[in-house]
Write the structure tokens for this entry.
Amino acid sequence: MFSTFIKCQIIIAFICNGFSYEHTEENLKCFNDYDTEMKCSLSTDRLKSCSGYKLNITHNVFNMNQNKPCIFEKSHPSDKCECKIKVQGFVITEIYTATLLEGTDVLYSKKLKTEDFIKPKTPVLSVQKTENGNFNVTWDDQYSDSVTRNFLETLTINLSYGIKGGLEKISKTVQNTVGSFEIVGKNLQQNTDYVLTATMSTSYNGHSISSDQSAPVEFTAQPTEKDLKCFNDYEKEIKCSLSTDRLKNCSGYKLIITHYMFQKYNACIFERSNLSDKCECKIQVREFVREEIYTATLLEGTDVLLNKTLKTEDFIKPKTPVLSVQKTENGNFNVTWDDQYSDSVLRNFLESLTINLTYGIKGGIEKISKTVQNTVGSFEIVGKNLQQNTDYVLTATMSTEYNYHSISSDQSAPVEFTAPSSPNEIAKMVIPTLCFGLIVIIFVIFFCILRMKMNWWDKIPKPNIDANLGEEKGHILPPSVMKFSQIHEEIPTLDLHEDMKLYQCLSVSEKGNDADVCLSLSNDVDADEKCIMKNLIAFTNPLYPTVILDDGSVTTTDEGYQAFPGLTTSTEGQLSSSVSTEQALNASGALKFPQSTGQDPTHVQQSSLHFSPSIQIDSSYQCV
């Protein structure tokens, strides 16, 4: 039973120790400033409050222990429990004993050697702007004269400054004995707020413990001489500009120009430039002398920011030229300009002016530059060297070597001109287009004709002609089975050696539904079945069309030729004697029948026999 109780007590003790927090020497940190103060801090990473904790500092002086207690309190700058003890002075080799108590319970003791825990005092900073636009930083190390000089000489100031609210910081380390440090104003962004802080450290104890950070000091950068630029046009005007790369606005700044000899001054207020992002002001003077000197004073309100000395010949900047471009008759472009100077300006100065012309394709990167003396007055751009039908932009600046600095004027307003198209260029564009269009038209016409042929011409039925037609006798005109009415016809004896003979029908009469036709050809009737001439004028497309003259004679023409079907030169006009004259006339078209009426065409009463009014016979064909 007793052993069980002992075990429970041990378990409870372990549990309580697990949930409890005991302070160690690492939680207690003590430092001395090597002057009159010792400060100790108790870490609050696990400490909820400072109440109940006390520190006793024991110092052995002449074999006597001096005990100095201090109560921990919450520190305002940091979340720590701190206590401070005042002493009369420190010796680098002396030893202190620090005892931490919670109520009356001693938690632990810690020995402290003076040289091992020296932490310099926190410096106090001050910033003043100088006449040259820089910022002079000074500090107070807070040490009294009683501190040894050797210790003070080991102190160093660690400065850190940057734009307010920014992340980037610039750090500088300076010996404490120097007493000050100058921040160069031209390296700062103008009209911008900066924040400066510092810490102090020492190598006197070989540990280089830094002091707490100083209270921040703010300062604002102001324009410098580099930011103020002044120029004169060597006629009547001085123009000064204040760079806005670091300047947010122009309000509040004023410039006073004072003549060195006559002590005359002119004041101007800076305003935002319309052409550039700068603060500018202009002052009118009566005239300029090359060697005279001016003083420019920049003020913000009533505070003088800087002074700058200006010698006339050192800051001459010519006026901005005004350009004009005219196209000439030969296709070139004549460029002229106005230097904006009056006749009162010295001729030597005007002769020293040069015009720097620059032109190029609008929107392009490549530029062509030409330099011309101002006295020339014009410059001609050769049109054939330009890309045809292209927009160009021309600008110019003016400079002078009168002051040996060759400061260029502001750039002139851009002037645009267009290079016209040449006939060759037009031909190069038009001819290929026309050729292509002509090819397209030819192809369209070809396909249209081909389609028309397929839709119309190819649908016309072709006559079936025996391949052996004309090769054998009796196949030229096959015998007809059709019966026609008797026809009285007279075929004369033909003289085949004569060129042409014309025979006309003597009488053609028509009585009722019967056709009595009389064809008077010749007195020789026996020749009607001996020979059939190949060319008959009554055929639809006669071999030799005829023309009947006023005197009744007949002549042939050269128009049109179509071989009589079935009769060719190769057959020599041979025809079987069994073939009747009627059939021959019918085949040649000499016999005309009316359109079919649905009746038998062999019926005599339903047919009418027609003869061609004339028959033309070609003597080149011979009968068998």
Remarks:
- The radius of gyration is 65 Å.
- Confidence is low (pLDDT under 50) at residues 13-21, 494-550, 552-580, 590-624.
- Residues 255 and 268 are 5 Å apart (CA to CA).
- The chain has six domains: 20-116, 124-220, 228-314, 322-420, 421-458, 470-624.
